[in-house]
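Internal QA ticket QA-208
Title: Verify multi-chain structure generation after dependency bump
Assignee: T.L.

Test input:
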Amino acid sequence: MEWFNHLSLDAQNDLWVIAVGAMTNTACALVGCYLVLRRMSLLGDAISHAVLPGLVVAFVFSGSLSVVPMFVGALLVGLLTAALTQTLHRQVGVPEDASMGVVFTSLFALGVILIKRYAHRVDLDPDCVLYGLLEFVGFNLIQIGPYEFPRAMLSVGLVLALNTAVIAIFWKELLISSFDPALATTMGFRAGLVHYVLMALVALTTVASFEQVGSILVIAMLIVPGAAAHLLTDRLSRMLGIATGIAIGAAVIGQAAAVWLNTNTAGTMAALAGIAYLAAALGSPRYGILAVLARNFASSIRVVREDLLAMLYRLEELNIERAMGWPEAARAVGGGLLPRLALFSLKRRGDIRRDGAVLRLTDSGRSQAKLLVRSHRLWEAYLVQRLGLPPDHVHEPATRMEHYIDRGFQEKLADAVAQSPLDPHGRDIPQSD
Amino acid sequence: MPVPPVEIHDMTVAYHRKPVLWDVDIILPERKLIAVVGPNGAGKSTLIKAALGLVPLASGKVEIYGQPYARQRHLVGYVPQRESVDWDFPVTVFDVVLMGTYGRLGWIRRPGPRERQQAREALAQVALESLAERQIRQLSGGQQQRVFLARALVQDAQIYFMDEPFAGVDAATEQAIVALLKQLRERGKTVIVVHHDLQTVRQYFDYVVLLNMRLVDAGPTETTFTNENLQKTFGGRLTILEEAAEAVRLGKPS
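Actual output:
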């Protein structure tokens, strides 16, 4: 710790803010992953508001803002929130989201009334509840043994340890009751019990984080890192790891950015988590918007490429002497950018070549085109013979379908239609090589 | 007489006070493939869920080999409806199959090499070894159903309850499932299946339970799955029972 003491007070405070922020964010993100997977993200929001009256009552009874009574108060009200929500939903038949909304707004309002009535002299003030006092954690240090560290670390460290321990010990129980609660219950892992354990963790995490980081950051960290991580992986352990990474990253960059922009630290960290989510939504390899666009583009250009090949094949088949040039071919499949890109791509692959101003299939292009036309005509034959469609109705559907028929499926089709070498329009069905 | 695998005695089940199954009394035979058949809303899934303790009984009792369910969990395997879980959940095929061992392990203990071996064997039995490391969303409907069956095999139960295992599967999967059910029967298991395809009942099942808010009949398929009984099960709505249920829900005579 020698190096630490040589830092300026400001720098020391910055590091403490980052440490407390990272621990809080991680504690929230870990339980948050399970909330996201159980589609209960908003229950975290609900509990983080609803614990307010619990905090006030705990304060009034104990006369202090110390950790233990606050934890007890929050825990009880947190469980009460979960229980009331369940009861309204199950017994009274209120939809789940509405019952959650009713319970947490009512309890939060009750908390506000209690503060104004009984606790107005203490610094449980609503602003602080919203934004927290993360900027100042470095100025409220306590000494334990030779070490001095922020008081906030005590409670936050406790819940971080608790959350980590519960997830590590009850990994299998949390997994099965989140994935398949009915099976979990039949096996004797009561899904209801696991639900309340999780709610208890959410309540404790919320309270521990509250005073330091405020409810905005708590809510953000309960939902956003988990939701972003879910987009980026399909393994639970990696999801927890990525969520932790986002939580810590948001703390480090958030503090730096907040100092630079001279603004609220908790808000900046929450906003950064939001940006991380946005990046995940855009960039996720499987679900991301960019990946979807890229896949759609790849698929469109493949279809145009295949249309071009099939068109050139039909021209050859008809023995049309006046063969087609580049701009004409592009126009024939719709014109615009995509056909031109498709032509370049075909040429680069060596499927077509220019013969003066004329486009011709190469051998490799011709054998691909042959398969496409075979698919097209087999599908037409199938539609006419098996589904009884009139022959003048089958060209369009076959044009769409030909791009999705592989060799195996081709053979199934060939078996399903009468062994005629001709399609319904009397043209040759090309044989596969 | 040996103790029957499942005995349901005078069972009534209600949702929000409204009875959906009335006074069901059945004793199911051992080592049989048993179909639970009835129209939509007849209470087929409810019968299974009530037997497994997933929904509370308004009255009556269920015994598994002569004991309450809670004591006999280890003898029972369950295959829920495929739509009942979130297939986007970040788990692999292998993870899901391994869950079948959780009940035997009890709280906290983790699956070890032995459990992993069992999961691999079960996957091989449903011909999905090659997909073990896939995320479950990437499977077809039939493959997903086979994952559930593999998980049930790993449970190594005496009695299996399966909720619509044939729903939305391709013909090949259906044949694979039937073959698997027959294997289970040969190994002395009793399998109770909620089934909606009347055409295949005779072909697949030894025993039927005909249900429509109450037990219409139960017995060997040969003698029980008759036109007359089907008429009773599917024909016409049971206006008297529906009215009675409504009266109970409202809490006053209708």
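Spot checks passed. The radius of gyration of chain A is 32 Å.
Status: verified.
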